[in-house]
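I'll show a record.
***
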Amino acid sequence: MQRKFHAVIAILGASLTGSAMAQSDVTLYGIVDQSVRYTTNADSSNNSSVQLLNGAITNSRWGIKGDEDLGGGLKAVFRLESGFEPETGKLDQGGSLFGRYAYVGLSGRLGTVTLGRQGTEAFNLFGEFDPLTVGNYTANSWPFFMTVGRISNAATYAGNFGGLHVGATYGFGQQPGSLSQNSNWSVRTSYDMGTLSVGGTYQQARDLSNNVQRMWGLGAHYGIGPATLYLGYMGGSDATGFVDSSLNDPTRTVTTGSFTANAHRDMTVFTGAMYQVNPALAITGAFYYDDMKNVNGFSGNGGKRCTGVLLAEYSLSKRTQVYGTVDYNRVTGGAYTELPGNDNQTGVAVGIRHSF
């Protein structure tokens, strides 16, 4: 799926000494994913829309990653990855050049330590245990706003020991005189036992006022022949307002209460299955359900959201796939602010994805 090129890089001093040389391995990679999507109840007047959008499941991106053998089982590693909108050519992640990942570190027998912009451990874990590997539309990826996603100014450790996988990330708040303001820390662990994998995570994030958003979760997947079954749970408590502000439809004018007095709470469960019909065709189904409390910072303002997604992907080659997807969302109670009009929305999309 990726085209590699190798280059021998001479250290600057080699021009003087004629001896200092190092071997580096660099990979240029990416995905260009474009879809045409039809959506019902797409605005406050419940009009439908037809749009050309980024991919339904995989966001378009390009990146460069590599490593250098330092000897003794130690390597230097780096990764720079940029998200973009192929329909316009604009950068994602607020216009950052490398808004998805930008880090450098060292990797050895005891694990890997990296510094820079990276995913939280909760995001890393559920990227493995979600049937859709975290979808790209808000209509199919909304539970994962609880994980915060990616953070800047982060130090991460990751270790793999047989079937055991562990990770820990600390995001520096960068605030003079305070180690807690705007900080983030998270841990994860998972274990593989044949075709069964199970894992768990805990995360805590603070805003500039030291209000806290917490999330925790468990996940599992199990392979049976050509099928893989998924099951997961995500819980959260948010006194920062981040989850509500991320999920409220941007076209709505939403009044908020006190998040510090009435922290938003989530109890989310999800399940799904992927079936490899043949080497070219894969079908995935996923279902997500969230029971919310104190929506938008108001005590007793509860709500529910449920989502069903069906995805069919067909490989034209090792690098190119075409796909179709259908998703249905329904909200009740205080969760009505997450959709622009009626309490339900249906989306249908077809697309093409090319990896390099």
